[in-house]
Known about the structure:
The structure holds 2 protein chains of 2 kinds.
Chain A lengths: L1 E10 L2 E11 L4 E6 L5 H9 L6 E6 L2 E2 L5 H7 L1 E4 L11 H8 L6 H14 L1 H5 L10 H13 L5 E5 L7 H18 L2 E6 L2 H7 L2 E6 L2 E7 H6 L1 H8 L2
Helix pairs in contact in A: 3-6
Chain B lengths: L4 H30 L1 E4 L4 E4 L1 H30 L6 H11 L1 H21 L2 H26 L8 H18 L3 H20 L7 H21 L1 H4 L20 H27 L2 H11 L1 H6 L4 H27 L9 H14 L4 H17 L7 H15 L8 H23 L1
Antiparallel strand pairs in B: 1-2
Helix pairs in contact in B: 1-2, 4-10, 5-10, 5-13, 5-14, 5-15, 6-7, 6-8, 6-13, 7-13, 11-13, 14-15
Bound molecules: adenosine-5'-triphosphate (ATP) and magnesium ion.
The site of adenosine-5'-triphosphate has 13 residues of chain A, from strand 2 and helix 1.
Amino acid sequence: MLKVKNLHTYYGGIHALKSVSFDLPEGEIITLIGANGAGKSTTLMSISGIVPPRYGEIIFLGTPIHQLSPDRIFALGIVQVPEGRRIFPQLTVRENLDMGAYLRTDRKGIAQDIDYIFNLFPRLAERRHQLGGTLSGGEQQMLAISRGLMSRPKLLLLDEPSLGLAPVLVQLIFATIEKINRENKTTIFLVEQNANMALRIAHRGYVMESGVITLEDTAANLLKSEKVKQAYLGL
Amino acid sequence: MNTQSIPFIRRAVSEIGRSLLVSCWFMFLTFPIMVIKVNPLERTIDWQWMRLVWIGLAVFPLSLVWRWLMMRKEQGSAKDGEDSWQKRLGERIRADRKISAAILALLAAFVVAFPFIFSSYQTQIMISALMYVMLGLGLNIVVGLAGLLDLGYVAFYAVGAYSYALLNHHFGLGFWSALPIGAGLATIFGILLGFPVLRLRGDYLAIVTLGFGEIIRLVLENWNAFSQGPSGIAGISRPGFFGIELSLSQHTVFLYFIVLALVAFTILVVSRLRNSRIGRAWIALREDEIACQAMGIDKTKTKLTAFALGATWAGFVGCIFAAKTTFINPASFTFMESAIILSIVVLGGMGSIIGVIVGALVLILLPEYLRAFSEYRMLVFGASMVLIMVFRPQGIITGVRRHYRFRQKEGTEEQGERDAASA
Ligand SMILES: Nc1ncnc2c1ncn2[C@@H]1O[C@H](COP(=O)(O)OP(=O)(O)OP(=O)(O)O)[C@@H](O)[C@H]1O
Ligand SMILES: [Mg+2]
């Protein structure tokens, strides 16, 4: 579905991605794990066009997208849920969701999707009129994912959805990610620090170290790999 | 004496002590200007000690009142749930359609009758206040909705004014044909400024826009061949009224109604914009730029429309300004002007339409009617600004959003009940 070839991304003089290549097969959950500052978020930012890559190619369903603006990439069906949630604090839950459907005009479909989301996260339904900024961290994460879903993405880029959440909530979020993948056939590219959890729900995984991909395999194999165990699972 | 009153007395004593300190401090600070009076003729110094006493006596109760207000304010914010009477009154008025309709009708009648009740001079003042309402609402798009701090807004006002003045001077173009041209030119300048500042936010944006405002003014001041420099352009025609000759006071009334109509038009457009797609995109952009991009909002287009639309309104008002004064020069377009318009937006309550209107009326009418106090005018003006910012930091009228949240909370409960009932 998405092919990334020899991607190089810079922040001014900082070379954050050094020839990154990978494939995201349609309908799967693919995870990208790695230490702090490895370049995981940068990879997502490059795909979504917010931090455009300097060299390399990104092909989405046959279309090269590495030179498109973020809104064009979004319109093609790639949605990023950025790190740290970044919901709109002064807008209500409902308005935040509406922002997710910004480019859509089919009212019926939007209403349906809102119902779907309130089913997925009943907690959000209770708080639909609360301001985003007053939600708890976990609720904000639910909202961030839901807002991303509102545009019916083909590819969902999730950046550390478990960040700062209690174990129970992490379980819930990961179960929901699996559910979204299963029910809507949404391809999900999941960036995580919580390698253990991520590899459990993912089909495939990539390991990134200082801007380069160092390992790639099925999630099951990575879970068993000595290197991953030592570096990321803390075993 | 019962034990409960002891902390109260202790508190009161400490408050009085502090206020005494404050009044001593004021006596010390004002000593050089209030007490020492040099008599240049006799080459002596008069020591006006009595004045020092008066200052001390005046500052002491003021300080007490001030401290009491601050205390109440802190307590007020501590128990946020309880509504103030203003808020409750606001709720009542908004909730009851009959009351709000009646108030609106009364207001409309007053506004329409204004030029016939009051003198030409009063009408003139009202015209400028209404012009600032428009300017405030225009800048509110940029600052209040899109969250882009623009300190050079006066530049677009100048573009509008000079467009009409020059078109009238060189080609004899009338007000009505110059109005859209002036606004259009201002729009173009808005986009021109928008492009280079697309990447900037906050302080940096403020500095660049400030510079832009000054550049426009300096060009107008120095490019004599184009704008006649500091001497300005005189003899600009007043708006024509179907070719009928009008007396000066009739012109004023006519202009008043033109401005009134434009204000109504502005309110209509701005309230529409707020709830439109682009309005939501502005608000989202103000809140979080990256999230905004992640929602597929075109950042460039959104920012540019905010700048362009804001500038358009300044252009409109610029044309009116030229028509009203019939003489313009660059001195009318200094940074002070931008600062006043920004104060209107901030004091009135960012993002709130009624707030901006009230802000403009207060900020423009107050100094006019304070002329009675002549030399203390600016002092009172400055003090009232400080007071408003201390006691109502969100502006005189708090944005609709707060009210919205309050009502919606009730709605949630209802919703919850309904859900429970249906379950
Ligand atoms: N806006 C920026 N400006 C300059 N350098 C940046 C910027 N954002 C990230 N970097 C640098 O790029 C490198 C990769 O950062 P990135 O955010 O992609 O890491 P990450 O893998 O997501 O880490 P984490 O797990 O901590 O979120 C880091 O060295 C970081 O310092
Ligand atoms: Mg990151």
